[in-house]
């Protein structure tokens, strides 16, 4: 078992496995990673908002996180349909104070 938290490991995984998000102007942030329940919440922003294939990206993230992390049992990926996204990013498109709507963006 790693000394890093589940959230840190998922963030690191996102940097390595999902560089396409940043390459296309998108951002992502891990909002929750509960080691006890196995639930992970990832939020996509930037150009992911309104992107026609963000549902495919979200499904790939869901599937791959569950496959790559034994302790992850449920993954929720939130994609804003409109609104402001955080401007600050760090490596791999991480960061920002992304804001998602409470209503589904129609993808999930």
From TrEMBL:
<dbReference type="Pfam" id="PF01106">
    <property type="entry name" value="NifU"/>
</dbReference>
<feature type="region of interest" description="Disordered">
    <location>
        <begin position="80"/>
        <end position="108"/>
    </location>
</feature>
<protein>
    <submittedName>
        <fullName>NifU family protein</fullName>
    </submittedName>
</protein>
<feature type="domain" description="NIF system FeS cluster assembly NifU C-terminal">
    <location>
        <begin position="19"/>
        <end position="75"/>
    </location>
</feature>
<dbReference type="InterPro" id="IPR034904">
    <property type="entry name" value="FSCA_dom_sf"/>
</dbReference>
<dbReference type="InterPro" id="IPR001075">
    <property type="entry name" value="NIF_FeS_clus_asmbl_NifU_C"/>
</dbReference>
